[in-house]
Amino acid sequence: MSVVSHRVAALLMVLTLFGLTSCSGPTTARVGTPEFYWYAAKETYAAGDFLKTADHLDHLIDNQNEFTARAIPWSLVLTSGVAAGYMELADDYTAGARMNRAHALEFRRKASDYRTMASPLVLRFAQNVDKMEKVPAGGIQLAFGLPKGTAAPPAVLSQIAGGIQLGAADAENAQSLAIQRNVLLAVCRAAGAPNDTARTEEILGHASALVQRATFQNALSQILIAESSLFSREKLDDPEKLAALQTRSKSILSAVGRSNSKLSPEEAGVH
């Protein structure tokens, strides 16, 4: 190996080691610490890698630390949004199967695959709803910005629903766009501004983006109901999971009513 090659290899090694400590936060963030995972989540979120962001946040929501109260709402929004993206894709491929009978089997297989991908995320979301007990009483802080994506359904999803077969690159792009759109919609709902990206951006733009606890919990309840449909008879056909999610949704609404009767406007996060 030449001297130049040795120098290049050494430089790459330094950059790799540097990336392990600083790419996800300040250079003082030691790998494996809560600070490391928090800044790693911020970086992957900005890049649009929402599944990786959710994985980073998982390290923060299981044990109490300085980031837990901010990580839990963020994790709930992300997991439910990604799951909704997969569910939307599954529904579009199901519609496509009816339009393209010659390739209906392939479309149905894709729909089945996406529902299978959505299932663990929906259950993960439903289970993590209980972690809201770790979030102190009062307003809920949304410690993240507006994600990539647009609220309008991408044209490529209409193509799928219309029975148009896509190439591999276009199908992958459709998946990315569907996930981005549904994470964005989940963020809007959590902020109390459903489908209103401008208002949501304004809310998240404040130094301390607080929403009323009841607003956030109502959003969780609505998401549970919407995503419970994944387990309906015509989809994954799991009545036990369907009932469990719907019951959890009702319990959240009940908790909202109890907490509202005990809190002052300031404690509830009304400003």
Could you please describe the fold and organization of this structure?
The chain has one domain. The chain is built from eleven helices and two strands, in the order αααααβαααβααα. It has a two-stranded antiparallel ribbon with strand order 1-2. α2 packs antiparallel against α3. The longest helix has about 30 residues. It starts with a helix and ends with a helix. The N terminus and C terminus are likely disordered.
Task: Break the fold down into its secondary structure elements and pairings.
Elements: H1 3-22, H2 34-46, H3 50-61, H4 68-99, H5 104-128, E1 140-141, H6 155-161, H7 168-190, H8 197-204, E2 210-211, H9 213-228, H10 239-262, H11 265-268
Antiparallel strand pairs: 1-2
Keyword list:
two-stranded antiparallel ribbon; 11 helices; 271 residues; globular; 2 strands
Secondary structure category = mainly alpha
> Largest beta sheet, briefly?
2 strands, antiparallel
The SSE string, one letter per element, is HHHHHEHHHEHHH
Quote the distance from N terminus to C terminus: 65 Å
Residue runs with pLDDT of under 50 for 5 or more positions: 1-27, 261-271
Task: Give a short overview.
Helix content is 68%, strand content 1%. With 271 residues, it is an all-alpha fold.
